[in-house]
Design brief:
The chain is built from 20 helices and 28 strands. With about 750 residues, it is of the alpha+beta class. Strands 9-8-21-22-23-20-26 form a seven-stranded mixed β-sheet. It has a five-stranded parallel β-sheet with strand order 13-4-3-17-28, covered by helices on one side. β22 and β23 form a beta hairpin. α2 runs parallel beside α9, α2 packs parallel to α19 and α12 packs across α17. The radius of gyration is 26 Å and the shape is globular.
């Protein structure tokens, strides 16, 4: 039985989770992010009448992006040029804004969408090292079909808009059509019961379920403990999804507005579920009894023993090892794995048109657009024309001045540190101090400017980066928001990539049950944790993430500052897993060639940049080409994503709903005279979302920020587009009249 059985149960359950009123396109189809149910893609596209095509971009002659804005003179600042920041810039540009400034701290565009070309000069392959995000959910059960339901996700909308190519991503545990084999390696290869086994091996799964929903595996590889664990997870998921189905398909839901739909969904199902599980880590839910209690929202746990729980930590539920997920709030796991984020992942090849494109920033840096991989999206946000003009076509070269409004026009500054943000109340300008490295003709000069004035500021940078690399005035955004940003939990992550001369995993439709092969994906309790091999369709030279770790597993590697040595250590660990025989005991002076016969030859054949020159006392060789990233050491991010800790739901709701809370008093219990309502600072990006770590969350928070900006300043109300308001508990700083604090 595959440890991914739970995913197949999800797919069966989904059939009963479509809403009764699918013609109401303001409400998305299941699966979708459950905290706010709204069809975001409808804001930016219009559906082809035959419904066989995805949403396409709206044009002003038959509608606008959100609205044809009447406030085009406003000067807009955007902190960060990742997927959220560049999307906001693009959509404002489409509305007619022409006074937009992007401030990016690094020397590139993309943020944590970070695709790096392989090492071969002139290589036209589109398989890249995805150092940040690398697998995308489409929230679409027909993700591989020609008829695409792109209205169910914003990411899918931009895939269609930019003509992006993609293919199935090889998640560990997926069936053969998505990955050419998954291996599981425990306890030096002795399996889940190491004291009872005498043979060291990797357990392998490589086949789809047959008609009886059983999983053929090599003889002797059946493992009852793995079966027990996967059944426990599947049963837990089914209990929650059954309740979700009843709430979603309640006959009273038919014909409701998005606001009414969300209110009833939250009252009947989502809020009780959240109230019970958010205070529990998933580690505790794994051990919790399976029986449901009398408390509303309690559907029990998995009922695992400590030994079973330790194994579940490694194998996960079909999308890789749990790593950092295990000790964060169980609601993060429930929301992502059960409501669409954890399945049918796609790897992004890039734009079909790979014609080289570049542009010059306002401070003189020439940027060559990376149109391969996920990095294509933020670049295309700026390069893709709208009504024959793109954002980059309008860029002008100039620098801001102290104590002045930002000059009219389109600007993008890379190498731009934002040092301080403050906002006076009563619609006063947002003031930004920044340090810009100017780079005309390759000659660098540092320019510091203070109190550059914007009418509105969209902040998409990491909360920890904003608060540690610079400062943001607590009075401007509310002290509870500043505290929530400060205590948010950023997780560490490390990826170690190797380039391949050729792929090493099997190809074709079938492999022998007992075939001697290295699986495409591995999950293990060693320091490697996970191995992903992938290649874009039609290509033969793939890449392998020889190690992908999160949180504590990645922090163990932070002190390894020599990337080549770290890659060598991880490659050698793989060799020990795959080539070490049952009888081998290393003796003093033995070389790795003697210890692992055949492994060095394998490295020479498959690993690009493997140097087989002999090293003193160790003839394994070294790795001379690799790509390594420790996200905890990246100064502008200080982590790869925000996964909320148990008991912090109010902090996360505050960050997620900040734009709504500070731009309208309706339904929130806030005095209409509260000066915080005059705040012109907006937050967007995945670290301000409930689904942190996923690009879809970044896009939806960007859309949310745009909605509330339009609601406050333009001729469109959130009521006009039936945008739901989420009722949240406000802290005392927001709930009281702050006029005395001015």
């Amino acid at each position: 039985m595959s440890h991914n059985k739970s995913i197949d149960i999800f797919r069966k359950r989904m059939k009963c989770l479509e809403p009764n009123n699918p013609t109401n396109t303001n409400v998305p189809l299941f699966p979708n992010e459950p905290d706010k149910l709204y069809n975001y893609a409808k804001l930016f596209g219009t559906r082809d009448p035959d419904e066989a095509a995805p949403y396409i971009e709206k044009r002003f002659n038959n509608g606008s992006a959100i609205v044809k804005s009447s406030i085009l003179e406003r000067r807009i600042g955007i902190v960060g040029a990742g997927i959220a920041g560049t999307m906001i810039a693009r959509e404002l540009f489409k509305m007619g804004y022409r006074n937009i400034t992007i401030m990016e701290g690094s020397d590139r565009v993309g943020g944590r969408l970070f695709s790096i070309d392989k090492f071969t000069p002139g290589d036209t392959d589109q398989t890249v090292f995805e150092m940040g995000a690398m697998r995308m959910p489409f929230f679409d059960r027909n993700v591989t079909s020609a008829k695409r339901d792109s209205y169910n996700s914003l990411f899918n909308h931009y895939v269609a808009t930019y003509d992006i190519e993609h293919a199935a991503f090889p998640d560990p545990g997926q069936a053969w059509d998505r990955t050419k084999g998954t291996g599981i390696y425990f306890n030096d290869g002795y399996g889940t019961l190491p004291h009872d086994n005498t043979t060291r091996k990797i357990l392998k799964w490589a086949y789809e379920p047959d008609s009886q929903d059983t999983y053929p595996v090599p003889s002797g590889d059946r493992d009852e403990i793995l079966n027990t664990i996967t059944d426990a997870w599947a049963n837990f998921a089914e209990r929650i999804l059954t309740a979700a189905s009843a709430a979603w398909n309640d006959p009273e839901m038919a014909g409701l507005t998005p606001q009414e739909f969300n209110d009833k969904w939250r009252a009947d199902f989502w809020t009780p579920l959240t109230d019970f599980y958010e205070k529990n880590s998933f580690f505790s839910v794994a051990a919790m009894e399976t029986s449901s209690g009398s408390e509303a929202g309690n559907y029990g746990g998995l009922g695992l023993t400590p030994h079973e729980s330790s194994i579940f930590y490694v194998i996960g539920a079909g999308d890789g090892s749990w790593g950092s997920f295990y000790r964060v709030s169980s609601m993060y796991v429930i929301m992502t794995l059960m409501f669409g984020y954890g399945e049918d992942h796609q790897t992004i090849k890039g734009t079909k048109d790979q014609t080289a494109k570049s542009f010059t920033t306002s401070n003189g840096r020439i940027l060559d657009a990376q149109l391969k991989g996920l990095n294509a999206f933020p670049y295309m946000n700026m390069l893709h024309p709208f009504e024959r003009e793109s954002f980059t076509d309008a860029i002008i070269g100039s620098l801001p001045e102290d104590d002045m409004q930002m000059e009219a026009g389109i600007h993008i500054y890379t190498d731009c540190e934002v040092n301080y943000i403050t906002n006076g109340f009563n619609n006063d300008s947002v003031k930004v101090d920044m340090t810009i490295t100017q780079d005309p003709n390759g000659v660098s000069a540092v320019v510091k400017v203070k109190n550059v004035q914007f009418d509105d500021l969209f902040v998409t940078a990491s909360p920890w980066s904003i608060l540690t690399n610079g400062q943001i005035d607590g009075k401007s955004i509310g002290y509870e928001m500043k505290r929530a940003m400060n205590v948010s939990h950023n997780i560490a992550s490390c990826k170690v990539f190797l380039d391949l001369n050729e792929i090493y995993w099997p190809t074709g439709d079938t492999i022998p049950l007992d075939g001697d092969y290295i699986p495409q994906c591995l999950v293990t309790d060693t320091k490697i944790l996970q191995v992903y091999g992938y290649v874009q369709p039609g290509e033969t030279q793939g890449v392998t993430a020889i190690s992908y770790t999160w949180e504590d597993d990645s922090r163990k590697l932070l002190s390894m500052t020599d990337d080549n040595e770290l890659a060598r250590i991880m490659l050698l660990e793989l060799g020990i897993m795959l080539w070490r025989d049952d009888e081998y005991t290393q003796v003093a002076g033995a070389t790795w060639s003697e210890a692992l016969p055949g492994f060095r030859d394998w490295c020479v054949r498959y690993i690009k940049g493997y140097n087989d020159d002999l090293r003193p006392m160790d003839d394994f060789g070294e790795v001379t080409q690799c790509q390594v990233i420790h996200w905890a050491n990246e100064d502008l991010y200080k982590g790869c994503s925000k996964l909320y800790s148990p008991g912090t739901i109010e902090d996360n709701e505050l960050m997620y709903n900040y734009n709504q809370m500070t731009k309208t008093s309706e339904g929130l219990g806030m005095p209409a005279t509260s000066p915080i309502l005059e705040n012109n600072i907006y937050f967007a990006g995945d670290m301000y979302s409930f689904s942190s770590g996923w690009t879809e969350g970044a896009l939806r928070t960007a859309a949310d920020a745009l909605v509330w900006h339009m609601n406050k300043h333009a001729s469109v109300s959130y009521l006009d587009i039936e945008y739901p308001v989420i009722k949240v508990n406000l802290g005392p700083i927001y709930a009281e009249d702050m006029s005395s604090k001015e």
